[in-house]
Specification:
With 208 residues, the protein is mostly helical. Helices cover 56% and strands 2% of the residues.
Length: 208
Amino acid sequence: MQWLSSLVDEFPQASPQQRSGNLSSAQLFAFFSQSSRIFNDLGFKQRLAVEHRQKRDIQETINEMQRQVFESQGVQGAYGIQFLAKVKKVHGQDAPLLTAFYEFVQREEMALDEAELPGSEFQNKYEQLAKLKAVLEAEAVDLPGMTLGQRQQHMAGVMQKLVASTAQGPTCTTPSSAAGGGHQHGPSCGYIPLRRSPSALRCRTTSS
């Protein structure tokens, strides 16, 4: 997927490749930021839509994009993706990072939905999610006396609920390398569904 290389920034120090240890909050913020930029790229969206129509595994395209982003930061790609399952365990007290993590997970789900769902169904789903987000955010306004830290924790919780709601929906038709069928929405693994190939992870769990 050479075309992906043009979308990935090259960081000044991209080697050696980190293959062990925890990723820092700075590394993860940079990864989330660059991944979100690529998710918003029109060419990337169009490529996913075309590959979906060709009945190709667009989750693997997203996985490859994320591997390249990690490697541009000096992190071995497969290791970086595996570490995403540990974000809540390792950085569970960092509310701003958790919020960015949940936003990233929701943005990935949104990219898949945008490529797979009919336009009206996609629009309706995300309009409803926008309304839900507004309701959840308003809850913080109704809780006077919250410290900055408490508000940050509340926003992390808001994004976690949105991720769970985003993942609810019909079965779509992206081929699965594991079963040959469409990917599934919903809490199939007890936390955040993640349509990844068996070589990576099937879900991000709270205990991994």
